[in-house]
Amino acid sequence: MSKIHNFGAGPAKLPEEVYDILKNELTNFDGTGISLLETSHRSPTYFKLNKDVQDVVRRLLNVPDNYKVIFLSGGGQGQFAAVPLNLISRTGTADYVVTGTWSAKAAKEAKKYGKVNLVLPSTDRYVDIPDQSTWNLDPNASYVHICTNETIHGIEFDFIPDTKGVPLVADMSSNFMSKKVDVSKFGVIYGGAQKNIGTAGVALVIVREDLLNQALPICPSILDWTVNSKADSILNTPPMFAIHVMGRVLQWIERLGGLDTMAELANKKSSLIYDIIEQSNGFYYAPVAKNVRSKMNIPFRIGKADEALEKEFLKGAEALNLIQLKGHRDVGGIRASTYNAVTVEEVENLAKYMKEFYKKHA
Ligand code: PMP
Fold it and tell me: What's the gap in Å between 190 CA and the centre of ligand 1?
């Protein structure tokens, strides 16, 4: 069988080089003679690993000293609860900028713990990010929440909002470490690891220190950023292997040249697909406004949402081992995810197939 090209939205492809490293160290971690899977989380081995992964996060994102780097269980959605539990107490209210399914889910979760102000008019058709001058921001909000990349709708922020001093909180689950980010512009950045930076089971949280010590009394300890940062992310048994995989992926990014290299590759890969869409005379159709088209998740339709032809496209793609291209059930159609680990060559294979399919059916 020829090589599989996985364009899944997450859990997503990991770099082949990382698999090779993990295979080699699976049963004998760092010369200890045992697997990390059976190593104590209170051992010097794990303490070192925990620090190494924090350090590589800090180096790649140039994290300022007044921010904590925390690893937590519960994935991205765990943080949908953790954000209000840790931050909403200051005023009891929070601003949510809903630009797709994931930020809508985050807002819904936050409503359990306080008042949520929806900054944008509600819609069920997410195709752009309204100009910031039209946003209904509440100056009394404890924080403003955004999702920097909507994985399902393929909408990615091309700017950092000005929240006039209110802490900005960002879900970066699907574009974490795909480009440089000025961390100092954010109060909190978080994301599940299983798309761009590792495997399911761990969320990476970067939080500014002055935002600690204000969790609601009902906040479970395992979601409490203050408690976990004091315990250096070893409050309970952490998802050690998932944290280790994250470390190996981030070290791989560093070896390739860091986040500028990832950004360059993401531009190149996403342009390959968007260019074909644009040059197809409407045969392929990308619904998202050009300035906010995601470089990580590219949703598109064929014709005027011709479901039969889309089915044929997906079937033909699978026959060529181009897999997991089906659009999310919320939006249908096709979605190509071009995360860090997906190579330019793999995207070129998809682009070639798209061109051939167009020639045959246009
Ligand atoms: N936020 C975004 C942007 C996501 O894409 C996802 C998962 N697809 C989540 C949050 C939820 O992550 P998890 O499944 O780790 O809870």
Answer: 10
Pocket of ligand 1 (CB under 6 A): 10, 75-77, 102, 147, 151, 171, 173-174, 192
Q: Is the pLDDT of residue 2 over 80?
A: no
User: Per DSSP, what are the bridge partners of residue 293?
Assistant: 155
Q: Angle CA(158)–CA(161)–CA(163) in degrees, nearest 5?
A: 175
Whether the complex's predicted ipTM is more than 0.85 is answered with yes
Give Cα separations from 62 to 57, 94, 121 (angstroms): 8, 28, 35
d(CA 284, CA 100): 22
Nearest CA to ligand 1 atom 5: 151
88 Ramachandran zone, left/alpha/beta (phi>0; psi -120 to 50): alpha
How deeply is 169 buried, as exposed, middle or buried, from its count of CB atoms within 10 A (0-12, 13-18, 19+)? Answer: buried
Q: Which strands make up the sheet holding 284-285, listed edge to edge?
A: 284-285, 297-302, 334-337
3-class DSSP state of 193: coil
pLDDT (tens digit, 9 = 90+) per residue, 135-187? 999 999 999 999 999 999 999 999 999 999 999 999 999 999 999 999 999 99
Residue nearest atom 12 in ligand 1 by C-alpha distance:
76
Contact predicate 176/264, CB 8 Å: no
Catalytic residues: 102, 171, 195
pLDDT more than 70, % of the chain: 99
Hey, is 91 helix, strand or coil? coil
| DSSP SS3 for 94 | strand
**Section 190-216 average pLDDT:** 98
Taking the C-alpha atoms of residue 126 and residue 106, their distance in angstroms, rounded to an integer, is: 16
**Distance, CA of 87 to chain centre:** 21
